[in-house]
Amino acid sequence: MIDLYRTMARIRAFELAAEVASQGGVGVLGAKVDERAKVRGPLHLSIGQEAVAAGVCAHLRREDLLTSTHRGHGHTLAKGGNVRRMMAELFGRADGSNGGKGGSMHIADFSVGMLGANGVVTAGLPIACGAAHALKLQGKPNVVACFFGDGAINRGPFLEALNWAAVYRLPVLFVCEDNRYSATTSTAGLTAGPGVAARANALGVPSETVDGNDVEAVSAMAERLVAKVRGGEGPQLLHALTWRVRGHVSVDTQAYRDPQDLQGALDADPLKRARARALASGASAAQLDAIDAEVQAEIDDAVAFADASPPPDVAAAYTDIQTTGAGAWL
């Protein structure tokens, strides 16, 4: 429980710091971007959803793989991504995880098996299946965790990916991080039928639903489902019901959202619930306060590191691209 709490606290502190650093970094309705902003462009926060990333990734090995969404900071951190290099990537600096060229929506860290966040809804699912198929052909004992949002279930690649995984019994754990909103619209009004779990079952992918704000429940279910996937039982789907506290992006004021709905999300804060559970299980307030202070110092250090990192050299714009001729990487 202490380890899960620490992971969640690190994700929360990282995203709160990134949110502050992004203020003024996105022009709204033609407004000029504030040149003082450290994080430029859309920033998608997973504040309120930390229990899903922490609970699932607690049961992944370093060699296991992961694909994410445009809201991928928490997944990357929970998988073991370097905090300093992640923050530098958000700042667009040369010391970032991807040399400052990926930013928030395309952050990746192959050293810990994090294949990348993705700005295209549902795009991570077929990528996960490709990676899982490769693992299967290579005879490796690893699994792929594939995170996606509830909005993804109404797009074609969801059907294609689950069908592919089921036909070939691929080692994939599909994780639907259901925060109930597709950008600025409630997903319920866009989704026919009973939803993701029923669709997965219809495609031959066993699915189970869990309270995504209860980190112990997520962890217990993930442990069981990862064991099934790793044991050769084929793909599984974990449907985690959670809440998005912030808007779709950092500048989203959520004017479209019922205040009672937002209050319900705040009341269900997974970090507060985890703290209460830890205290009830014998942890002391001083112990948890020390963790909070430890991760805050870690994030403060990451911000300072990112701020001191230089921007990428202009020449870097011509690296990591593929030629249209011979197909060689430059």
Description:
This protein is an alpha/beta fold. The protein is built from eleven helices and seven strands. The protein has helices at residues 2-21, 50-57, 73-78, 83-90, 124-138, 156-168, 196-202, 215-230, 259-267, 270-280, 285-308, and strands at residues 65-67, 144-149, 172-178, 181-182, 185-186, 207-211, 236-241. The strands form two sheets. The chain has a five-stranded parallel beta sheet with strand order 1-2-3-7-6, sandwiched between helices. The longest helix has 24 residues, at 285-308.
Salient structural properties:
globular, 5-stranded parallel beta sheet, 11 helices, 9% strand, alpha/beta, two-stranded antiparallel ribbon, 330 residues
* Largest sheet, spatial ordering of strands: 1-2-3-7-6
Bin the helical content.
40-55%
Q: Please tally the β strands and state the result.
A: 7
Largest sheet: 5 strands, parallel
Q: What's the shape?
A: globular
Our count of helices gives 11
State the secondary-structure class.
alpha/beta
- Note the beta-strand portion: 5-15%
Quote the distance from N terminus to C terminus.
46 Å
Radius of gyration: 19 Å
Uncertain spans, ≥5 residues at pLDDT below 50?
none
